[in-house]
C-alpha cells in the first residue's frame, strides 16, 4: 500500500489557497513593518530600542495602532497574491508537462510575479 495516493489528473488546482496563505502570513508580519517604519521615521534624538518603541506605541496609541491601515494592505496583498498564483498555475497548465525544468519554472515564476506586481 503506497503512502501517498497516485496524483489525480483531473484534480482542480486550488491556486487561491496561495493568496489566502500569503494574506494570513502578512497578518503576522504587518505589526513588525509598522514598528520598523515608526523607528525609521521617529524624530527622537536618542537611540530607542524596538522593545521600548513597542511599549511607547502600546501606552500612547493602544494595540490597534499596530494594525492601522491593515484593511488596505490585506486587499492589496490578497489581490496581488491571487494573480501571481493564478497566472503561474495557468501557465503550468498550458505547458502540459509533468516535470518542468528548473530554468523554465524560474521564468514562469518571474513572469507571474511581474503580472501580480
TrEMBL record:
> Which residue ranges does UniProt annotate as crossing the membrane?
none
Q: Which UniProt keywords apply?
A: Membrane, Repeat, Transmembrane, Transmembrane helix, Transport
| Cellular component, GO annotation | membrane
Xref: InterPro entries: MCP_dom_sf, MCP_transmembrane, Mito_Metabolite_Transporter
Going by the entry's taxonomy, the superkingdom of the source organism is recorded as Eukaryota
Q: Pfam families, alphabetically?
A: Mito_carr (PF00153)
Question: Gene3D superfamilies of this UniProt entry?
Answer: Mitochondrial carrier domain (1.50.40.10)
Main location, first listed in the record: membrane
Solcar repeat segments: 9-94
Localization of this protein:
Membrane
Membrane topology is:
Multi-pass membrane protein
The record's comment on protein family reads:
Belongs to the mitochondrial carrier (TC 2.A.29) family.
Kindly provide the name given to this protein in its UniProt entry: Mitochondrial carrier protein
Species name for this entry?
A: Popillia japonica (Japanese beetle)
